[in-house]
């Protein structure tokens, strides 16, 4: 049975995340804008249209820049892995990126160097130079009121809990996934990765992508279909729609670590999947149980390289490349301050 690229967004700690090749689960709704109330007088005639436009523009300018979403969730909701990024989505396009970035502060109990990178007009991502130290707290604060012209905004703070250092290495040539927890090898799981053989736009989409992935979410049972490759007719021999247990998502292009849907004879021996990392029932269930968003899953041995824009694959960029996305001089890199 062939599995991979699914049709529903994965969730982790009650967080819905939309995948590029899947049905959208919806993005976080922007926070409502705080618009100052203006007094009205029924005794005065309505101002000319020109003045009404000017007044509206003035009110709009006074609306403070805010934050629509912060990922991951706070310390009381989830623990995160040592590769986790801090993803900040503003409630609208940021015109002065340098000023906004300068207002973002990260404090860690065990500091490491980190920097922000802008990935869109509204979104900035914080990544560390090396992985976070495990078993600590990290506090993010957006000093929005310190941005020039944004003094009426409310500052925002979120505290994260970093869990164990779960770092897995998937060797697609030896067909094994080795999982280390806080530096100690705790499990070797026989796997089967992407077999290759389906070329789309010059890319073999049946190959698992090699590179440093981060776990982004997980579902006890995930629905995986062939719709990602345009096959929706049940009469088509390539059609499938399967309920796959213990699915941990590692990219936006539909890659998971999950239980193999049968074909157990290939695990540890050959690559037979459509790109996912298939594992034994016991191994997949165990991995699902320890998985935290932001855990590291490094995949080796294939010719298809992971794009850094695919999901949370920010570790695909070198530290020098990463800092070039900052709006501040010298990449804005600095050690996260002592908490």
TrEMBL record:
<feature type="domain" description="L,D-TPase catalytic">
    <location>
        <begin position="166"/>
        <end position="300"/>
    </location>
</feature>
<dbReference type="Pfam" id="PF03734">
    <property type="entry name" value="YkuD"/>
</dbReference>
<keyword id="KW-0961">Cell wall biogenesis/degradation</keyword>
<feature type="active site" description="Nucleophile">
    <location>
        <position position="276"/>
    </location>
</feature>
<keyword id="KW-0808">Transferase</keyword>
<protein>
    <recommendedName>
        <fullName>L,D-TPase catalytic domain-containing protein</fullName>
    </recommendedName>
</protein>
<keyword id="KW-0573">Peptidoglycan synthesis</keyword>
<keyword id="KW-0133">Cell shape</keyword>
<keyword id="KW-0012">Acyltransferase</keyword>
<keyword id="KW-0732">Signal</keyword>
<feature type="signal peptide">
    <location>
        <begin position="1"/>
        <end position="27"/>
    </location>
</feature>
<feature type="active site" description="Proton donor/acceptor">
    <location>
        <position position="258"/>
    </location>
</feature>
<dbReference type="InterPro" id="IPR038063">
    <property type="entry name" value="Transpep_catalytic_dom"/>
</dbReference>
<dbReference type="InterPro" id="IPR050979">
    <property type="entry name" value="LD-transpeptidase"/>
</dbReference>
<dbReference type="InterPro" id="IPR005490">
    <property type="entry name" value="LD_TPept_cat_dom"/>
</dbReference>
<comment type="pathway">
    <text>Cell wall biogenesis; peptidoglycan biosynthesis.</text>
</comment>
<dbReference type="Pfam" id="PF17964">
    <property type="entry name" value="Big_10"/>
</dbReference>
<dbReference type="InterPro" id="IPR041280">
    <property type="entry name" value="Big_10"/>
</dbReference>
């Amino acid at each position: 049975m062939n599995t991979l690229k699914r049709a529903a967004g994965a969730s982790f700690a009650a967080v819905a995340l939309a995948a590029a090749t899947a049905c959208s689960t919806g993005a976080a709704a922007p926070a409502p804008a705080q618009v100052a109330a203006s007094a009205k007088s029924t005794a005065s005639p309505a101002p000319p249209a020109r003045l009404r436009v000017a007044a509206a523009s003035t009110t709009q300018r006074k609306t403070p820049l805010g934050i629509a979403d912060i990922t991951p969730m706070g310390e009381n909701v989830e623990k995160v892995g040592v590769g986790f990024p801090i993803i900040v989505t503003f409630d609208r396009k940021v015109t002065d990126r340098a000023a906004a970035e300068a207002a973002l502060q990260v404090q860690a109990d065990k500091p490491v160097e980190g920097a922000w990178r802008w990935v869109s007009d509204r979104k900035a991502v914080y990544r560390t130079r090396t992985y976070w130290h495990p078993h600590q707290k990290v506090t993010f604060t957006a000093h929005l009121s310190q941005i020039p012209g944004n003094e009426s905004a409310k500052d925002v703070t979120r505290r994260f809990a970093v869990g164990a250092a779960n770092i897995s290495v998937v060797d697609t040539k030896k067909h094994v996934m080795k999982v280390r927890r806080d530096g100690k090898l705790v499990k070797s799981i026989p796997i089967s990765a992407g077999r290759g053989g389906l070329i789309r736009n010059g890319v073999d989409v049946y190959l698992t992508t090699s590179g440093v992935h981060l776990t982004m979410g997980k579902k006890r049972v995930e629905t995986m279909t062939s719709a990602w490759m345009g096959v929706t007719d049940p009469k088509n021999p390539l059609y499938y729609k399967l309920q796959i247990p213990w699915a941990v998502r590692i990219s936006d292009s539909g890659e998971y670590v999950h239980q193999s849907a049968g074909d157990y004879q290939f695990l540890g021996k050959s690559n037979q999947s459509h790109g996912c990392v298939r594992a034994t029932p016991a191994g997949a269930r165990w991995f699902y149980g320890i998985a935290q968003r932001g855990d590291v899953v490094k995949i080796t041995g294939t010719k298809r390289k992971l794009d850094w824009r695919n999901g949370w694959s920010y570790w695909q960029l070198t530290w020098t490349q990463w800092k070039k996305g900052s709006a501040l001089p010298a990449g804005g890199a600095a050690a996260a301050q002592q908490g």
